[in-house]
């Protein structure tokens, strides 16, 4: 709006300088009315645009309310970050601001002043009004598309995959690492502020550990809730060095607190589980009695399965930061695949237990994940979830056909697990 106001002040000055000097071929396309006509055009544009802007704000608020009540409150950030909404509102408000600013320069002919009609400026206002109308139509189409659960899940899925690829490496096997074991003199480091852990400055954390001659293990994950004054990390002196004195611990604690950033909400900056959390929230919300939409829950579980399969092919082990000599100085935890599987399966299993379609999709999810990994440590997690799913199915009042289908799906999961982990590898 600031640019629009400056343009509304500056363009009439240009009009005053070039008026009458433009060729006829150019002036033929410019506004040709008098002062009253110019005032009418600018007043209509300004009045219409402020009404349309109010309508746009109202539609956006209704969309946010619907997304919050029907899908998940955590999806509101998807709309808040939508650049299309930002651009549309900026265009409407800028056109209103520009028209009102230009309106003040239109003068009628009086005894002590000559008439002045900023033809170029009024023409620009007309063009901005046309652009605003087109923007409003496109915005309505965009809003109708964005509010669909398919579009929301796609946006969350894409953001989650981007976060996962940015924070991990694609490897068939976990990276080999030397176990980090604490020595004597272990001290706890506390959080400086409360909130969700949003990101960690790895370079700052490594620098703090090197300067203090210590090894630091951060045992909180991005997305965890931190409470000021409670431990979030442990540190101990590097092997072969003296114990950490009180001053060194104080400085290290301050620098670690500065490197650990908190916020009032979870973000996708380094939180690999946040996208999966949002997708599971949509599934659980769809299974609530007030919504009762198992089809949406099954759709959300398909996205959850795709994210788990993506995670299965990546190195989710702890991130080890080394100094110039190659010694491990910082250990950062990351969510492992068993934890992600439990996040994706546990709540939908509990709230969708009575629906065979939801339970069937959970069996299929486990089978798909089993086919996406052959790491031995993942077998126990898949078998545990399979046992819990089967126990839930046994407690339900399914008919014979539904129970037979569940048994067949359970067998397919076992076969997938056995195929990926032959007995000789157990």
From TrEMBL:
It holds the Pfam family DUF2254. Keywords: Membrane, Transmembrane, Transmembrane helix. InterPro entries: DUF2254_membrane (IPR018723). The chain crosses the membrane at residues 40-64, 84-103, 123-144. This is DUF2254 domain-containing protein. It comes from Planomonospora parontospora subsp. parontospora.
């Amino acid at each position: 709006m600031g640019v629009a106001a400056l343009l509304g002040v500056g363009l009439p000055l240009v009009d005053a300088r070039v008026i009458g000097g433009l060729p006829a071929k150019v002036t033929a396309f410019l506004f040709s009315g008098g002062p009253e006509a110019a005032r009418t055009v600018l007043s209509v544009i300004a009045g219409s645009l402020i009404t349309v802007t109010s309508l746009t704000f109202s539609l956006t608020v209704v969309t946010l309310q619907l997304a919050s009540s029907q899908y998940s409150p955590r999806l509101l950030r998807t709309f808040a970050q939508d650049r299309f909404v930002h651009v549309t509102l900026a265009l409407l408000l800028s056109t209103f601001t520009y028209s009102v600013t230009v309106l003040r320069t239109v003068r009628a002919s009086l005894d002590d002043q000559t008439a002045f009609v900023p033809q170029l400026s009024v023409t620009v206002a007309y063009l901005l009004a046309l652009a605003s109308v087109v923007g409003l139509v496109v915005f309505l189409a965009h809003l109708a598309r964005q509010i669909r659960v398919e579009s929301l899940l796609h946006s969350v899925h894409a953001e989650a995959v981007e976060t996962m690829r940015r924070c991990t490496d694609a490897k068939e096997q976990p990276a080999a690492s030397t176990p980090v074991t604490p020595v004597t003199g272990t001290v706890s480091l506390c959080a400086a502020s409360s909130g969700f852990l949003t990101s960690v400055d790895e370079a700052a954390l490594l620098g703090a550990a090197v300067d203090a001659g210590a090894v630091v293990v951060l045992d909180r994950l991005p997305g965890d809730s931190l409470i000021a004054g409670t431990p979030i990390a442990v540190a101990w002196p590097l092997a072969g060095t003296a114990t950490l004195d009180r001053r060194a611990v104080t400085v290290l604690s301050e620098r670690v607190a500065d490197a650990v950033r908190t916020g009032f909400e979870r973000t996708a900056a380094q939180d690999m589980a946040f996208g999966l959390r949002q997708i599971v929230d949509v599934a659980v919300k769809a299974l609530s009695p007030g919504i009762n939409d198992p089809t949406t829950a099954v759709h959300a579980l398909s996205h959850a399965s795709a994210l788990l399969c993506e995670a299965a092919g990546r190195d989710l082990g702890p991130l080890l930061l080394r100094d110039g000599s190659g010694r491990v100085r910082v250990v950062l935890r990351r969510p492992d695949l068993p934890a992600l599987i439990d996040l994706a399966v546990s709540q939908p299993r509990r709230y969708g237990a009575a629906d065979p379609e939801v339970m069937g999709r959970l069996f299929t999810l486990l089978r798909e994940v089993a086919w996406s990994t052959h790491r031995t440590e993942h077998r126990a997690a898949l078998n545990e979830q399979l046992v819990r799913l089967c126990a839930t199915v046994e407690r339900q009042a399914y008919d014979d056909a539904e129970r037979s289908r569940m048994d067949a799906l359970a067998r397919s999961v076992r076969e997938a697990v056995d195929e990926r982990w032959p007995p000789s590898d157990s």
